[in-house]
């Protein structure tokens, strides 16, 4: 299991990287953390003619507060950094909560935020988390840049709206509105194994005289379809409702019925996954509403 | 283009200058170019943890990096811990608790644990099990390894 | 002789090397001019090869040679039969078909991963590049995957000329089951399925071979459990004499069974190639190859029936099963015979009908993996005990105790042929004691009476299981050892067995140190080098410490006799008054009257002139030990599990094992062996299962999809030691290596069933998975 | 591996059939096609470079159309080999005329996958197949409408084979209900049920468990 030969480019600036991307086009691959790409190359299921290594571009490693109270995160920020960073813990606790579920510590040392997003593995945690948070991605090419909303970015398995001449450079996380709660839940066969199903939830309550009702519910599932699945039907059933066990059960059932399209593999049948969607949605919403109520 | 890259890597405090093909995996570089064969290869797809080394002080899977990426970086391998006559406290603890049998996975466990113990002096069994979850051992059922970590954290005491 | 070391928790002599990365494993061997090999393996489970064109590969820069079967000429031959079929069993059917080095044009590949060509290049990277250059023209054939399908008249034939996929048939009977059945109050029958897994040693197979043209000698560093047997068989295959070949098994990164497989295609091809090229070659199997091309085990389907009286006395058992041997059967009947001989376990079963068919399928070859057929037998028996307990409204512990062979019934004839082809006899044991100990350790009664109802009230599904087992261990034929006191006073011990982490460097040293009164650190142990010891069998069937250990003991004892003889002459005192302490032989009552071992060693190597007729030089002895028959260890495990009925995840909350392996040489090492066995058992209960599709494609050939237990999956294991010494060897020891793996799946399934009692599940298979549990729960509660 | 389903097209059966059996369509229908030789009216052989996410590889594919009952049904036998492994499959496509001038397509397929694809690609194969067939069929529907429109204005429909990204992207935007983009217009001619099946196979052929 040794990789096939390739040309190697180690740009030190985004500009240089974009030049390489523009020149080399399709057969080149971007090397971020490499924790999904390199095993695939070791199996020789990927044999890119060239790798463009982003690990030497300092301007892609950062976590900054944004003016709106959210966060701006450089695409090459390591998962292990996200895991330890106080700003993340404070402003994006949902991201922090998902970290231990991403493979193992040795993988998170190298794995990056942007890499996980661009790889678009439907069983990955960070795509679902960013969809739940309503994150936006900054994408650059030589001509300029554009912002893409997380929920539109993912097309299907390993496929995104990124064009071959484009580079994902930054993730923008919006601030958590007041009276918001969050939860991350995942069922995997063992620590670090692919999630059979996972869910990231962020809910917001309003504060009406009649008591707190759900103003917004963003629930995104992993391993429940060909991309991170945003639960629109579940949200509909919740908006305007008091977060009762009743309402949560209804939302969880709606999610399992209408918001996901799970597949079968050797670890889990589609039926089992649908069942887990219901179970985890209920657990996540319960926890998220509790947090929102405090 | 000639597909060879000159790199400079510091391993266990020693500076090495070599020329490598980009596709050369870091673990093969460490084992076969530098003859530091204490780091072992178990799966080459990043799941078993056997090839764990410290890269700039943090544990990584050396089967999931290319040697060329180590250019200008610091690596620490099991050879950089104790010696046969003077074992590192963690190595001593492994011996005293019989935390290794065939010993093939052991260097990976040691390199995962060294920074972990330095960061977390006092540990619950649950935390230890989580910290070990990225390393597979087929011989011990992990029980004596967990004993070793507890013993080592006593030996190493609270970090300054 | 004082037992200063034997029985103590001595830390291991080998550890400093292993802990500092100084221990030599095969992949660490690096020789000048060394080439690297990669194998082209079949993507098809069953196909006829029309032609293989390696022209492009041969012309790739850096490629030194590409060989196909055609290039081997007269050296091409199927491997030898590694274990004979037990012809002491009457009417036995055995159709031998052993593995081949590579399929020739016109011949067939019979499993995914079977080698078709080997590339030898300047680097492994280049060798793998060249694999893609080789063009194979083959005709895919329908594959046989299902065990029953294999025996259907219209099934594709794996070995055409055989006219059937039946590899073996064996029937053994004790008493008369049909009569017993006629008298029974209760008869229960079920179909029980046990699926395949891999051994998954963390070190894959690997070889470095070097032909020395000047010396005309072949050296092979190999990850083998049986260096001497490997040397004997490969040298014979290559047509060189045994003393022209040296096999070195350095530190080996785990064995667990498959590394006992011999004359594998890789071994023969590499030996042949290095002689042809006159350059050293390294081949290290990668993990994917390990899943496809290293032998594996389990894979049986049992139709079993048990007949009992109303009060739970077993009258008889009938077990008819089918065993999957894969594409070839070089290990003959070892595994299914083990299943057969462990089904009755610790129980008194007056009438036993056991019958099996072995079938060829288009899957990798089956040879023993830790447990080696035993877990299947135990799983079947223990499942039937549970069903019987339910049917009769008995407590699972009670029905087991009631049927156990009493402690005073040893040696106990089992009435069938055992794995060493003689009447199966249990040498010693106290089975009720292991059951009682496990029951107390886990607090069985209290759990059932108090804790479980409380959990149920809280809506938690927590269950308990208990399973009993025997383990036939320490089988023959023999092992040997040579002990030498060197003129330095240090002791050298050499034995033929290989070692893969069992601590032989220490446990053997403990035996010698006690016999010779030296420090255990002063005993240097060499294992696994055929240049150092010529005779031996190998490390398997939990036999190393007992069979080789007793040879070591005998050799050390005879050296001790020589020491005392020489010392008595030197000190002018009768032998019986002498003692050996800290490397000094001294007169017990007059300690200052002493002589050192090193001095005696010098004197024992006589100078010119001082030779008495008949003198044998040196304080050295070589002794062998072969047990009359295998010693039977036994034990009981109990566990408490909690099932999350929403997610169907299972947590093992407590695990206890009460174990009896006779005299314990080193409790620290025995505990480690038990822990390892249990973790493999947990794996084969809930994590590890090879999944094949209907075309014989293995669907989970990576650690991402085939899950080994991790630290977070393992419970804390509580061990209770019991000791009934075996009368079959002077040290009274029995094997322990496989213990934990044998009963664990049976216990796990029982505990899960018990936890889900209100779902009324009946689980008749292993391994399980969350997904499978979900299906079972759905099926039971539509 | 089984693959069954049906889909309703907004167009008459004859038009759908033309698409299915138009060799030019076939020739340009396979993303990454490096060569596609028409051996006979019913046999095609080609070399393709296929790519999804990190996975990519060349493979040779063969397609045989048989048991044709124009414009109702045909059977497609596909056989592909590559360094990553092999795939073989038989797909049956049936076109059923609907009252409202629409056409219902029913497809059933049975595929086997071998080699690295099978042994390391499990986790995704089902997802990939579903995804590709859905995208293929949705794109086909648009292809159909565009073809009908083009004929109405009797102008040739221009296209150049799009990239996987454009293909997927276009489908995605379409799913999101966006208007036709350039990429989609290019795609217009180029997805047919046959192709959905072929791409499915192709992508399975280039899959892995990353």
Characterization of the model:
- The complex is a heterotetramer of chains A (294), B (160), C (782) and D (210).
- Helices cover 36% and strands 27% of the residues of chain A.
- With 294 residues, chain A is α+β, with helices and mostly antiparallel strands.
- Chain A has 3 domains: 7-56, Uridine Diphospho-n-acetylenolpyruvylglucosamine Reductase, domain 2 (2-Layer Sandwich), CATH 3.30.43; 58-173, Uridine Diphospho-n-acetylenolpyruvylglucosamine Reductase, domain 3 (2-Layer Sandwich); 180-293, Enolase-like, domain 1 (2-Layer Sandwich), CATH 3.30.390.
- Chain A is globular, with a radius of gyration of 19 Å.
- Chain B is an alpha+beta fold.
- Chain B has 2 domains: 5-80, Ubiquitin-like (UB roll) (Roll), CATH 3.10.20; 89-156, [2Fe-2S]-binding domain (DNA polymerase, domain 1), CATH 1.10.150.120.
- In chain B, strands 2-1-5-3-4 form a 5-stranded mixed sheet, with helices on both faces.
- The longest helix of chain B is centred in the C-terminal third of the chain and has 14 residues, at 106-119.
- The mean pLDDT of chain B is 94.
- Chain D is of the alpha+beta class and 210 residues long.
- Chain D has a single domain (2-205), classed as Alpha-D-Glucose-1,6-Bisphosphate, Chain A, domain 4 (2-Layer Sandwich).
- Chain D has a 7-stranded antiparallel sheet with strand order 1-7-6-5-4-3-2.
- In chain D, helix 4 (122-152) packs antiparallel against helix 7.
- Chains B and C meet through helix 2, helix 3, helix 4 and helix 5 of B and helix 1 and helix 17 of C.
* Lateral strand order in the biggest sheet of chain C: 3-6-1-13-10-11-12
CATH architecture of chain D: 2-Layer Sandwich
CATH superfamily of the largest domain in chain C: Aldehyde oxidase/xanthine dehydrogenase, molybdopterin binding domain
Name the CATH architecture of the largest domain in chain C. 2-Layer Sandwich
Pick out its properties.
B: alpha+beta, Ubiquitin-like (UB roll), DNA polymerase, domain 1, C: alpha+beta, Aldehyde Oxidoreductase, domain 4, 3 domains, 27% helix
Put the structure in a nutshell:
The complex is a heterotetramer of chains A (294), B (160), C (782) and D (210). Chain B has helices at residues 26-33, 89-96, 106-119, 125-132, 143-156; strands spanning 5-11, 14-20, 52-55, 58-61, 74-76.
Sequence-ordered SSE layout with sheet pairings:
The complex is a heterotetramer of chains A (294), B (160), C (782) and D (210).
Chain B: E1 5-11, E2 14-20, H1 26-33, E3 52-55, E4 58-61, E5 74-76, H2 89-96, H3 106-119, H4 125-132, H5 143-156
Parallel strand pairs in B: 1-5
Antiparallel strand pairs in B: 1-2, 3-4, 3-5
Helix pairs in contact in B: 2-5
Chain C: H1 15-19, E1 35-41, E2 47-53, H2 55-59, E3 63-68, H3 69-72, E4 93-94, E5 108-109, E6 115-121, H4 124-131, E7 135-140, E8 166-174, H5 177-183, E9 186-197, E10 206-212, E11 217-222, H6 227-238, E12 245-248, H7 265-277, E13 281-284, H8 287-293, E14 297-308, E15 314-326, H9 334-342, E16 351-360, H10 374-392, H11 396-403, E17 412-417, E18 423-426, H12 431-442, H13 444-457, E19 461-473, E20 479-485, E21 491-495, H14 504-516, E22 523-527, H15 544-571, E23 578-581, E24 584-587, E25 594-596, H16 597-603, E26 619-625, E27 631-643, E28 650-660, H17 667-686, E29 717-722, H18 744-755, E30 765-766, H19 770-780
Parallel strand pairs in C: 1-13, 9-30, 11-12, 15-16, 21-22, 28-29
Antiparallel strand pairs in C: 1-6, 2-5, 2-7, 3-6, 4-8, 8-16, 9-14, 10-11, 10-13, 14-15, 17-18, 19-27, 20-21, 20-26, 23-24, 24-25, 27-28
Helix pairs in contact in C: 9-10, 10-11, 10-18, 14-15, 15-16, 17-18
Chain D: E1 2-9, H1 13-21, H2 23-29, E2 33-40, E3 43-52, E4 55-69, E5 73-82, E6 85-97, E7 103-114, H3 116-120, H4 122-152, H5 164-175, H6 182-187, H7 193-205
Antiparallel strand pairs in D: 1-7, 2-3, 3-4, 4-5, 5-6, 6-7
Helix pairs in contact in D: 4-7
